[in-house]
Amino acid sequence: MYTEESKPKLKLAVYWAAACGGCCVSVLDVHEKLFDVISAADLVFWPIALDTKYKDVEEMPDNYIDLTLFNGAVRNSENEHMAKLLRKKSRILVAYGSCAHMGGIPGLANFSTKEEVLYRIFEETESVVNPEKVRPLPECDVPEGKLELPFFYNDVRSLSQVVETDYFIPGCPPQTERLLEVFIAIVSGAKLPPPGSVIGAGTRSQCDECVRIKTENKRIRKFYRPWEIIDDGITCFMEQGVLCMGPATRSGCGYRCIKGNAPCRGCYGPPEDLNDPGAKMMSAVASIIDEEDPEEIMKIIEDVVDPAGLFYRFSLPVSLIRRKIS
Amino acid sequence: MKFNPRIIAFLCNWCSYTGADLAGTSRMQYKSNVRVVRVMCSGRVEPTFILKAFKNGADGVLVCGCHPGDCHYQEGNYRCLRRFLLLQKYITQMGIESERLKLEWISASEGKQFAELVNSFTETISELGPCMVKEQVNTLT
After folding, report:
1. CB count, 10 Å around CB of A142?
2. d(CA A288, CA A233)
3. Nearest Cα residue in chain A from B84
């Protein structure tokens, strides 16, 4: 007879590639609901919490893991190897968090080349003393044998640029409540959306659901950095002249930033049917400038200090011009 | 082989496209490097269009609209101007020479100016050489 006990448990894996660890912590943020999670699922691989080795994963049969939450971007050969390995071993591979979804903060390294990154870290940084200009090598011979390090790539990539990805859960980090909703849906056997969908988020833009007061007449003559202005706490950030990524960002995060009186940073990525949030943002920002003289417009635009870094903060590797051209 | 630049031009229906048409009907000769895309207004040209053109191998992008104050839709060309200036800042950050993106006002009667503009812009892009966006964006290292 089929009982609750005889029901096979879901096999769950969580992996971090080029990530800060915040995504793993957001999984831990389920708090006491963790008991519900582990009663429905066995955690088979989770480097932040369990001591499962890579070779244990390699020994698993293909499609052994039911659900893998892959967080972090693909930065080096180790990340790529694990992405390919987990793809092979998992039934459902989810890009979890902004880095796996769009490249995220590590993706900003695409503004530099590999050489620039290594030079900065190993030679130029103020706290570094390295007169012999020693750099890490992928392979190194020592008396005890050969040592290996992962190979560092020139480009940062998102998970779906490396392997086929079933779903995307956006956010930096994703809201834990959204993760639980997705998890419960998978455990209960609910019908999942078509592969390639963004799940655990809305489909519209932040502005569509934002609680701040908006008027139709947006006219800006000066842009402010958030610390240059006293926010009134109720009016749309854009109408106050503070750049907010809301117009080009997907809803579903629960407005934590805006409720905390900080403008949206765009971590949830673009809404449905929009692939380059930065381009849309430039379009939106330019539209609200209240000036017609080219020189005056230039003066106003000067306040947008770093358009590429601001508008593509989380999405550079998946944007149209996905790296700095050298 | 001599470098033959590929240039995408977005021309507004009411002034610039008619201006380009005038250049043609007046049998003016100009460089054939430019591929024209007609849009209803220069304000319709989204940054996405321009970035896509570069991504797909354009060496230069030209946007033309009605002279300031002459827009068929009152202020579409001003929107275009503001987007253009912001986009210039962005493409410079991305390592694309700002000369590769040009905005000019061409009225319906300025066929000659359009022909001259195409020639001078083609000249500028020829001197700059091929745009590396397509190559670098499509190869991962």
Report:
1. 7
2. 21
3. A286
Instruction: Write down the ipTM of this complex.
Output: 0.91
Instruction: Output the pTM of the full model.
Output: 0.91
* pLDDT surpasses 50 at A267: yes
Q: If you measure CA to CA, which chain B residue comes closest to A297?
A: B82
* Residue A50 phi, psi (nearest 5): -120, 160
Rounded Cα distance between B26 and B23, Å, is: 5
Average pLDDT over every residue of A36-45:
88
In 3-state terms, what secondary structure has residue A51? coil
Angle at B2 between CA A324 and CA B7, to 5 degrees: 50
Q: Are A101 and A174 in contact (CB under 8 A)?
A: no
- Gap from B25 CA to chain A (nearest CA, Å): 33
Cβ–Cβ below 8 Å for B94 and A321 = yes
Confidence (pLDDT) at A4:
53
Q: Does domain A10-103+155-198 have CATH number 3.40.50.700?
A: yes
Distance from C-alpha of A246 to C-alpha of A250, rounded to nearest angstrom: 8
**CATH number reported for the structural domain that contains residue B72 in this entry:** 3.40.50
CA neighbor of A92 nearest in space, from A192, A2, A207: A192
What DSSP designation does A73 have? B
In this predicted structure, the answer to whether residue B105 has a pLDDT above a threshold of 70 is: yes
pLDDT at A11 exceeding the cut of 50: yes
Query: Residue A70 pLDDT > 50, yes or no?
Result: yes
Contact B49, B137 (CB under 8 A): no
Question: What long-range pairs does A129-136 form, CB within 8 A, spacing at least 24?
Answer: none
Q: Which residues of A touch B (CB under 8 A)?
A: 111, 114, 153-155, 157, 161, 276, 278-280, 282-283, 285-287, 289, 291-292, 294, 297-298, 301, 304, 306-309, 311, 320-326
| Domain assignment present for B122 | yes
**Which neighbouring-strand residues pair with A15?**
A70
Q: Is the pLDDT of residue B81 over 50?
A: yes
CB contact under 8 A, A282 and B79: no
Q: What is the 3-state secondary structure (H, E, C) of A164-186?
A: CCCEEECCCCCCHHHHHHHHHHH
Written as one letter, the residue type at B128 is L
Residue B71 falls within a domain, yes or no? yes
Domain range summary for chain A, segments of one domain joined by +: 10-103+155-198, 107-153, 206-318
Sheet holding B7-12, edge to edge: B34-39, B7-12, B60-65, B101-105
On chain B, the residues whose CB falls within 8 A of the CB of A247 are: none
| Domains contained in chain B, number | 1
